[in-house]
Automatic annotation (TrEMBL):
The chain crosses the membrane at residues 36-62. This is Uncharacterized protein. It comes from Microbulbifer variabilis. Keywords: Membrane, Transmembrane, Transmembrane helix. The lineage of its organism: Bacteria, Pseudomonadati, Pseudomonadota, Gammaproteobacteria, Cellvibrionales.
Length: 66
């Protein structure tokens, strides 16, 4: 059986998917808009991860330099 934090994560993801599905079907939100926002979210996430990797590399380089 999954531990409590894993169950909470799975429950949160399922609730998010259910909310998006409700928005699509109940409020007639176009699927095209949902996919557009998903792509924007993934691009923003990629930029944040790339910036974190860059700052980590710079900090690592600065530590090794001394």
């Amino acid at each position: 059986m999954a531990n409590k934090s894993r169950r909470s994560f799975i429950t949160s993801v399922l609730a998010c998917v259910a909310f998006v599905a409700a928005a699509i079907f109940s409020w007639d939100l176009p699927v095209k808009d949902v996919l557009y926002y998903l792509v924007l979210l993934l691009l923003a996430l990629f930029v944040i991860i790339a910036a974190a990797l860059g700052f980590g590399a710079v900090l690592s380089w600065l530590r090794r330099r001394k």
